[in-house]
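Shipment paperwork, digital attachment
Item: protein structure file
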Amino acid sequence: MKILMVNKFLYPNGGSETYIFRLGGELQKRGHEVQYFGMEHAGRIVGNHAQCYTTDMDFHTGKLQKLLYPFQIIYSFEAKRKMETVLKDMNPDVVHFNNINFQLTPSVIYAVRSYEKKAGRKVKIVYTAHDYQWVCPNHMMRIPATGKICFACRGGRFGACSKNRCIHNSRIKSLLGTIEAKFYARRKTYGMVDVIICPSEFMKKQLDTNPLLAEKTVMLRNFVERTSESVKKQGDGAGGKEQGTAAAKEAADYVLYFGRFSEEKGIGTLLAACRALPEIPFVFAGSGPLEPQINQVENVENKGFVTGEALYRLIAGARFSVYPSEWYENGPFSVMESQIYGTPVLVSDLGGAPELVQAGRTGELFRGGDAQELTAHIRELWEQPELCREYRENCRDINFDTVEQYCDKIVRKVYTWGNAD
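Attachment content:
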């Protein structure tokens, strides 16, 4: 089978990139041909045989080509043209879209349907929803200026995006986002996709508010990869309980946050809890715009950006981890990774993240954005090490899909015609 994986970033940048690289790699191991299409970038690590990519676009540098970008982020003729070149060269059976809006634009969807007509063959279009872009122009269902959760645009009422300056708190960018959303809603563009993969029930529920998408959605949770060390820790078959118990005793005395250091991740609320609990040591691992604030808190040790075995050891060594996000997360890898490495997790009750935690068994939930409640939960868990040990033992029963299991489902239920159930 030939699969074209499409994503605006083709270098390590976040969860969607982790997803396409790991899934693409597993598909290739099984003998499928996988190529990639997206923006050109100095850090690009995957590509296509035609060596065809769109021009790099960065909306955060302040160097926007003001006369061209408003048109390019709504409908990109360049992306459509170059996508058609790659399609003609590769002749894929499946085109798997991920994050495409703004930098690539949904013009690439039209490229596939145009190619179908010229080639005289069907191509299955699959989309994995990593955020809420197709029902919310700023993709987060959150007003950045106030931090409030918002459902105003569900059902196609996109005017609230402009009113609330929902994109980068900019009136112009928010207006463009509103125009883009209305443009594709009226053309029913997203209805041209065959299957929409939703990594959480919450995500599926939001997309299903659009009748055009409701018939296309299928819930399939993200996979999570275990390192060789984590497999040893969790135990596999005979001796698993003994190994898990030994691992539970190895926990060090700190509370861990790992992920992006940004406002929507609840960093401000977590730092307030850190300050209120000076007797508890916290470790942060990651990077982002709020790093200066993190470095100012005395009982927080900032490890910076950590990956691989070093990250595993950091997670496995924590008494518990905290995931305080204040937007409707989809199916965050961090929450899954914490538990498969045997570490309980305290998670905000927003979005799809709570679906990943067995509250009262492998972790606990708190009201997102409530610093007092978060502080109380951290204090209670810290003062009950025996409860944390119990949660760590329960984490041994966590059974998220591996990338191999996920790939089986994708190929069997999604990529094959008539089998998405």
